[in-house]
Amino acid sequence: MGYVVIDLEFNRMDNIEKHYPNIYLEHEYLKDIDIESEIIEIGAIKVDQYMKVEEELKVYIKPSIFPVLNPEIINITKITNEDLEKGISFEEAMAKLKEFTGNNILCSWAKDDIAQIIINSHYHKYEDIKWVNKYIDIQEYVTKVIGAKKSLSLKNALTRLNIKADSNLLHDALNDAYFTVQAFKQLYNYRIVKNYIVNNVYDMPAINLKCVDNIKLNYNMIKSSCPKCRRKIILDFDYMPARWRFISVGICSKCHSAVLNEVIVKKTLLGKVIYSEIGSILNEIEYSDYSYRLEKYFIKKEKKS
Question: Which pLDDT does position 105 carry in this prediction?
């Protein structure tokens, strides 16, 4: 059994009114649509257990969800309307990817792509996705093996691994799949890799939340531990929402280090909420800056209430 490394490109409606001011008047269904990303390109590379490339797949998908191709997406991916006009349907693309994958393990850089295969399939009422089972998040694997504290972008990982990559080639699905293979190959060790195989993609924390302002934290699920000695942090403040995560600072009960603790909230494809935490040791200036920011937030919040 080998691996199939995939990369997807998407069309989204972010900032679309800058380019099409009347789009929500002309296409009223977009106001209620329950999907953010439409898959428009699939790139996939099949490798054997020795990381030798066996086969490649590149497919454009003819859009059927969003009525226009976002100019910002064109700028990033260089995908054109002409490319997509020559594409195939979502159902045909999934059938091709299923056949291409066979009994191999699906892999991608971060969980977004695998999540969007499931989400797009549900939107299209496409049910033949039981083949999407065993999976490896190569971003998670590479980040942990390198020893990086926070998740690496593909570009940053390539830089750290001294893999040359022309930035003009990035954001092409097949090229990104190729660069992901290169990063995976350089750090590949099956005895370690097998610990990163997810056997049920529906149970993994695959959906990132863009904003946590309306999320109520369950403090019983938060450890708030020191990254240095793993003891409990005595928090100076409650957790404050900060875009996609919650943050707070405190002092370790054992080593007395000043610590920033970040709580990232994710959901599984079945809707279960999962927390992950990142603790960072702060110097005196950093601790003071975060404390000021937190204090200012909670004073403002108290005044509003």
Answer: 97
Give residue-wise pLDDT tens across range 21-64.
999 999 999 999 989 999 999 999 999 999 999 999 999 999 99
| The dihedral formed by the CA atoms of 200, 63, 70 and 155, expressed in degrees to the nearest 10 | 40
Rounded Cα distance, 294 and 239, in Å: 9
Separation CA 164–CA 141 (nearest Å): 20
Q: What is the CATH number of the domain that holds 131?
A: 3.30.420.10
Q: How far apart are CA 274 and CA 289, in angstroms?
A: 29
Inside any domain, residue 207: no
d(CA 94, CA 234): 50
CB atoms within 10 A of CB 32: 6
Rama region for 69: left / alpha / beta (φ>0; ψ in -120 to 50; rest): beta
Cβ contact 261:248 at 8 Å? yes
d(CA 222, CA 201) in angstroms, rounded, equals 24
Which range marks the domain in which residue 79 is found? 3-201
Number of domains making up the chain: 2
